[in-house]
Amino acid sequence: MPRVMNGCFFSFEGPEGAGKTTMISKLESLLRERGIDVVATREPGGVRIAEAIRSIILNCDYTEMDGRTEALLYAAARRQHLLEKIVPALEAGCVVLCDRFVDSSLAYQGFARGLGIEEVWKINEFAIDGYMPSLTIYFDIDPQIGLERIRRNRGREVNRLDLETLSFHEKVREGYRELARRFADRIVVIDANRPLDDVFAETTAAVLSRLKGR
Fold first, then answer.
1. N or C, where is the chain less crowded by C-beta within 10 Å?
2. Confidence at residue 6, expressed as pLDDT on a 0 to 100 scale
3. Which is nearest to 192 in space by CA: 139, 146, 151, 150?
């Protein structure tokens, strides 16, 4: 059963280069200006142990990593991050903006790696213990455009997933679209191929609408 939370939990999803990090940073600033307590964080990572796991998962030297190993590592990092950072923030009544959460595992490992969405969900169901975002923003983007953005952004880390083939990233997008169909009540789809200002305006409207409804 979903947990009852004092705060409000938002997750932000999308293929590589979708602009999640930029959107979260801008949204965090806007909410703070309105006097709202905000915690912005990321997966995998956010706390010491999860960041250590991140350094293994995304290391470009570990191209031999098995898909199930990858899924289990993500779930382990997610558990520690949730326990140490997300849950305390929600209990304190904060708005949590999380760059990726369980849907990433379902799209990347469950769908694109072919492990099965239901099978990967079972791993993560154990890890998240009923905590799910009240709203998930999915930034939909053409994989070729997203990867080109990464190539142009010299300040962004290049990780192991960036080295995957275009066909893999196309499967990731297909996986996200499948999740958006299954969980239409939670996932809002935003076209991230458009100019940044347009994407941010729609993102802000979706988040503020959900906050107003609480």
1. N
2. 85
3. 139
Tokens of 99: 């760059």
How many CA atoms, within 13 angstroms, populate the side-chain half-sphere of residue 4? 0
Give the contacts of 85 (CB within 8 A, at least 6 positions apart).
39, 41, 46, 47
What pLDDT is attached to residue 150? 81
20 is in an annotated binding site: yes
Helix (H/G/I), strand (E/B), else coil: 97: strand
Is 171 marked within a binding site? no
- Specify the CATH superfamily of domain 8-212: P-loop containing nucleotide triphosphate hydrolases (3.40.50.300)
Q: Is 19 annotated as a binding residue?
A: yes
Interatomic CA distance for residues 94 and 86, integer angstroms: 9
The model carries a pTM of 0.93
DSSP string, 8-25: EEEEEE-STTS-HHHHHH
Q: Cα separation of 98 and 86, whole Å?
A: 9
Q: Is 16 annotated as a binding residue?
A: yes
Q: Is 18 annotated as a binding residue?
A: yes
In angstroms, rounded to a whole number, what is the distance separating the alpha carbons of residues 16 and 54? 16
Task: Find the helix or strand (DSSP H, E) in which 69 lies.
Answer: helix 67-81
Q: 164: annotated binding-site residue?
A: no
The proportion of the chain whose per-residue pLDDT surpasses 90, expressed as a percent, equals 86
Backbone conformation region of residue 94, classed left if phi is above 0, alpha if psi is from -120 to 50, else beta: beta
Is there a binding annotation on residue 21? yes
